[in-house]
Amino acid sequence: QSVLQGIVLLPLRATCLIFLLLLAWLFALIATFCQPERGSAPLKGWRRRMIQTTLSGLTHAAFFIMGFQVTVKGKVASLQEAPIFVAAPHSSFFDAIICALTGMPSIVSRAENLSTPVFGRILSSLQPIAVYRQDPDSRKKTVAEITKRALSRGQWPQVI
Fold it and tell me: How confident is the model over 98-148, as pLDDT tens digits?
């Protein structure tokens, strides 16, 4: 019986996940349409709210479809309380759970991730801080950008 459930559930879950992924890509495309170059200016107004609400909801739905149910105990820190979140060790797709629970903050990511199909557009909508690993000054530039955003008094989203 469990094999039969797997035969039915796997394609159903995969189809739902693909649908959610494409929907997230569409919302990310709309939010970043006609925006300045990556990372040069923060998303504001309806664009930022759309990313925060829709991508967070779609990420919650995707994890629910995969069988994860996450509950938050306590209160998530606001942008004024904590302009920077630290999630460690960050080594898996579980980092997306933290992003969804914290309102889709900006993330620090290697620059190569921004050029991947579908995921790159979704990642770009989060206004990431891109790390160029081949650049010897990349570490200094990343720290400077994190500091700039943390001190922006709410113009940029939280950084994780």
Answer: 888 888 888 888 888 888 899 889 988 888 888 988 888 988 999 999 899
- Identity of the amino acid at 159: V
Q: Which residues contact 42 (CB under 8 A, 6 or more apart)?
A: 48, 127, 152, 155, 156, 157
The string of DSSP codes covering 76-118 is PPPTTT-SB----S--STTHHHHHHHTTS-B-EEEGGGGGSTT
Which residues have CB under 8 Å from 106's CB, separation 6+?
Answer: 126, 127, 128, 129, 149, 156, 157, 158, 159, 160
Domain boundaries of the chain, sorted by first residue: 1-151
Q: What is the value of pTM for the model shown? A: 0.82
